[in-house]
Fold:
Amino acid sequence: MQMNILSFFLFFSAGISLLVIFLSIERLGFTPLIKTFSFLMLAIFLSNIGYANELSFPNFIDKLFWVKVRYISNAFIPALWLIFVFSYTDSEKHLKKSLIFIYLLTPILTFLLILTNRMHNLVYRTFSLSTADGISFLTFERGPWLFLNRGYTLTCIILAFFVLLRFSKSVHFRYKPQIKIVFAAALIPSIFYISLLIFLKVSI
Structure:
């Protein structure tokens, strides 16, 4: 295992995600909202761990394993973020079990397709090992499912912001600063993600 500055930062970010989970549960209890938030942060934790290990391990097989961990985790983040926003804004009608299943259907299918990719190549077609600035990583040709997943991710991001924006207009003024914090905290990574999709043409 070969540590580098980027993997160190990712490990540190993963640790922060776990700390946020523990502090949230300790201070607010394991309410439905905190439960959803904890699952969201856990997915972010696993994504950071997966990416950090992908960059740290020199072996191709090890990198491939951690790429799968990263992409499986990433697949669930948009759905969990959307469910969290519905829960945070008390949109109970959007939190029925049947609807939650629909939100999670694409991530579950992505999870299964990643595990069985060698049979159909719908997620990745080819893999190769590349190096830049002394850091080795995997590059690959993406399959059609990742492009469908990209559309699903963008839909979740846009819908979640629309719900937050609508909620901010109806909530009592004393809670508006909280809404602004949630909105701002999600806006920066969302802009970064969309920029990568548009300008670098990648799937995360």
Notes: Residues 200-204 have pLDDT under 50 and may be disordered. The chain has one domain: 5-200. The first strand starts at residue 124 and ends at 132.
